[in-house]
Design goal:
The complex is a heterodimer of chains A (about 270) and B (about 260). With about 270 residues, chain A is an all-alpha fold. Chain A has one domain: MetI-like (MetI-like fold, Orthogonal Bundle). In chain A, about 80% of the residues lie in helices and about 0% in strands. Chain A contains 10 helices and no strands. In chain A, helix 3 packs antiparallel against helix 8. Chain B has about 260 residues and is of the alpha/beta class. Chain B folds into 2 domains: about 180 residues, Rossmann fold, CATH 3.40.50.300; about 60 residues, no CATH class. In chain B, the strands form 2 sheets. Chain B has a 6-stranded mixed sheet with strand order 6-7-8-3-9-10, with helices on both faces. In chain B, helix 4 crosses helix 5. Chain B is globular, with a radius of gyration of 19 Å. The chains are: A mainly alpha (about 270), B alpha/beta (about 260).
Chain lengths: ~270, ~260
């Protein structure tokens, strides 16, 4: 005879199982999606030139992998994103903190920032090509220009979002202006700054891919464009899938770094 | 002999906004003597918090003055340790790093300040939570940290702005008793704000009742209830007598605010 505590135990187990069941559901949905896609092409509803089957994309991936080209393109794009983004961040974040802390400096920077902010990063591509040609520096500069102004603005917001009562508390406990900055404003702004950087990293990827679509000799954007020019639709899709996976991996890496830097924010 | 620590003279505070000027405090006179535990009672919106913020130096008086040992308050003064209703803990610091913050600001060495912080953590009974972040604590525990943080800095005066208002009844009672114990042991000068008459009667040596906005002090009452002030005190006839005296004044003010009484 099952007693009540056993029943609770079963109920808990059921919920635990349900969670792993949901993961199974996700896997099944993925498999069904890919199978239907594969079947639609194999049966001949759609021509592979229009939409190649997943297996054809995979085959193309293996071919490129064997020639060492996948890493070439992925690393080219990733390097451009990370270098441009790191440059922009390392200047924009300190500048944003400074502007967030001083109303006077912000008044100086405001006109320029409000002109830069609405400019989509793609709008910088022609100018960067004129100035720097089809070079790596041009790619970095695109990412830099695309993420600089928004990062400054995010950081200003983050610096100002500190609860004034915390500033009062710190001063009440005898904090000087310097320690207020170091002990309260900077760590308090860290979390929203990192959230902002996460969004900016996504935008940096958009920027790099667009720049590569316009003019490049390697990178994931180039891979897609090259595929299109030679009517190799499977290569176009492969490039898209690689972008998706790379961004996902970088996002996971970013999150684990975030957890290390801000251990006090735990869900 | 009564030594005045805080003297408030004809304090008026007007907040200027674009639409209108709001007079939060009008001609407040209040003297708090050494080792007194003054509780300021008043309905919400009567300017209690403005008063305590002006004493702490967060706000500047529009006219009148606040004196600390005879000297006007011109800046945020660490001699007045503040405990906020919203705890105001630093989320990115562990409990012990919050508690030793004031000592760190004084430039005290790590080992020394850790020892003192630990004493106060023990005092508010948070042993074992030293290295936990505030986000993982309950409201009552957060307020204990905040109390320990203010005490560790060893301020001469404690200002408490409705510190227990957001807590559940049981936690509140425990913390009230702890505060009484701390007061009896440390003999600090305390100004405590509340809208609860029971809390005022339980804690204070003197009660000041505020009028509705613009706030001023309408009534002073010496609270001669015997110590220790545990829950049993509430059964004494004197308790009820004092309570109805305070309630009479507060009720009048509340009704004035609500427009029920001219």
């Amino acid at each position: 005879m099952p007693n009540s505590s056993e029943k609770t135990f079963h109920a808990l187990n059921f919920i635990k199982n349900l969670k792993s069941d949901l993961r199974v559901v996700s896997i099944i949905s993925m498999v069904v999606f890919l199978t239907v896609w594969e079947a639609v092409v194999r049966v001949g509803f759609v021509t592979p030139l229009f939409l190649p089957a997943p297996s054809m994309v995979l085959e193309d991936g293996i071919r490129l992998y064997e020639r060492g080209e996948i890493w070439l393109h992925v690393s080219a794009s990733a390097r451009r994103v990370l270098i441009g983004f790191a440059l922009a961040g390392s200047i924009a974040v300190p500048l944003g903190i400074l502007l967030g802390a001083s109303k006077f400096l912000k008044a100086i920077a405001d006109p320029l920032l409000s002109i830069l902010r609405p400019l989509p990063s793609m709008a910088w591509i022609p100018l960067s090509l004129l100035w720097l040609g089809i070079t790596e520096t041009q790619k970095y500069s695109i990412v830099f220009m695309g993420s600089f102004a928004p990062t400054v603005l995010y950081t200003i917001e983050a610096t100002r979002s500190i609860d004034p009562v915390l500033i009062r508390a710190a001063l009440n406990l005898g904090a000087s202006r310097m320690s207020l900055m170091r002990e309260v404003i900077l760590p308090g702004a860290l979390q929203p700054i990192i959230s902002g950087l996460k969004v900016m990293l996504g935008i940096a990827w958009t920027t790099v891919i667009s720049a590569e679509l316009v003019a490049a000799d390697k990178g994931l954007g180039y891979l897609i464009m090259h595929g299109r020019e030679f009517f190799r639709t499977e290569q176009v899709l492969l490039g898209m899938a690689l972008i998706s996976m790379t961004v996902m991996l970088i996002d996971i890496a970013f999150r684990s770094v975030e957890k290390k830097i801000t251990p006090w924010t735990r869900g | 002999m009564a030594i005045p620590v805080i003297e408030i003279k004809k304090l008026t505070k007007i907040f200027e906004t674009q639409k209108e000027n709001v007079t939060a405090l009008k001609n407040v006179d209040l003297t708090i003597n050494k080792e007194e535990f003054v509780v300021l009672v008043g309905a919400s919106g009567c300017g209690k918090t403005t008063l305590i913020n002006t004493i702490a130096g967060f706000e500047k008086p529009t006219s009148g003055e606040v004196l600390l040992h005879g000297e006007p308050v011109t800046r945020i003064d660490p001699r007045c340790g503040m405990v906020f209703q919203q705890y105001a803990l630093f989320d990115w610091k562990t409990v012990i790093n919050n508690v030793d913050f004031g000592l760190k600001m004084k430039g005290m060495k790590f080992k020394e300040r850790r020892e003192i912080a630990q004493q106060y953590i023990d005092m508010v009974r948070l042993q074992g939570f030293e290295n936990v972040y505030p986000a993982q604590l309950s409201g009552g525990m957060k307020q204990r940290v905040s109390l320990a943080r203010a005490l560790a800095n060893n301020p001469e005066i404690m200002l408490l702005d409705e510190p227990f208002a957001a807590l559940d009844a049981m936690t509140r009672q425990v913390l009230q008793e702890e505060l009484i114990r701390i007061y009896r042991e440390s003999q600090k000068t305390i100004l405590f704000i509340t809208h609860s008459i029971d809390e005022a009667l339980l804690l204070s040596t003197r009660i000041a009742v505020m009028t509705s906005r613009p706030g001023s002090i309408k009534q002073f009452l010496d609270n001669d209830l015997p110590w220790p002030r545990d829950a049993a005190v509430q059964l004494l006839p004197r308790y009820l007598e004092l309570k109805s005296a305070v309630w009479g004044t507060v009720q009048e003010e509340v009704m004035k605010t609500a427009g029920l009484l001219k």
